[in-house]
Design goal:
single chain; Diguanylate cyclase; eight-stranded mixed beta barrel; binds magnesium ion; alpha/beta; binds ligand C2E
Amino acid sequence: MYRSKHVGRNIVTTFEATLQDEQTLALEHELREGLSNGEITVYYQPQIDLSSGIIVGVEALVRWLHPSRGLLPPGEFIQLAEECGLIVELGETVLRMACLEMKRWEQQGISYETVWVNLSPRQFQSPDLLSSIQTILRETGLPPTSLGLEITESLAMKNTDQIMNKLHQLRDLGVRIAIDDFGTGYSSLSYLQQFPINVIKVDKSFTKLSSDEQNPRFIVTAILALARELNLRVIAEGMEHIEQIHWMRQEGCDYAQGYVVARPMTPELLSETYLELSDRARELVH
Ligand code: C2E
Ligand code: MG
Ligand code: MG
Ligand code: MG
């Protein structure tokens, strides 16, 4: 009795696994098609300087304009792209679009200091990363100092010679480097001192202003003190309320990004609303 039940469960599991494999394969195929059909697009979210209220940078956030499912956020396809290797091509597409967009804004009289682009671990470890970035910068004419790369804390944590070398090569190119979602990786802090990075982005889970004991404010204060000591700039992520902006500013955080400033949007909308956004950003810090 027990045995047949056991077998039965295995059959179901195998069936489900096959179904899942097929769905994954289908999605992978669609993503490959989507990439060559120009369905991959990039939204941009502004970042403000907390002392002046000036919009200093933007973060590039990928979107997939799926023909039947509509606009898909990265959470729906980045993991898959990472697993099947499409992330390298996808990442290059985003990098190129972001650099081109910076040049386009410049032509419209809008110049941000930095466009930040997220790099996945596999993309970072790809042997072609450096040459591909060099090519994109050369072809788009964007100065390397205007490009920032966001890497994950878990990648930085690995702290191998290979990763360290690559970071130094990137820094030698002149691009800026940020640790994204800082604080979520439960990492040793020693890598911060050893790594050639410019910026840490404090994850939104720490910047919430709640009386939640799980999320005490002194963590942010401690991160800011650490960053000051190591001469790193700090961006606070996930700012949804003006109170968070005021608090971060008071604590001496350099920059802020979040829905209270603006949601990620198309580059066209960002240009169209630039003046409004700038006024709003200045008001937020006063
Ligand atoms: P991330 O790099 O930490 O980006 C910030 C995420 O928080 C974005 O989600 C953004 O829309 C969202 N966000 C911004 N402000 C607020 C706020 O005030 N409140 C809340 N609750 N959320 C806010 P999105 O666009 O869905 O991206 C999710 C993640 O996908 C990113 O997290 C990043 O890790 C990854 N990602 C995005 N674009 C790319 C890409 O081109 N390449 C790679 N490898 N990963 C990407
Ligand atoms: Mg990011
Ligand atoms: Mg982040
Ligand atoms: Mg995040």
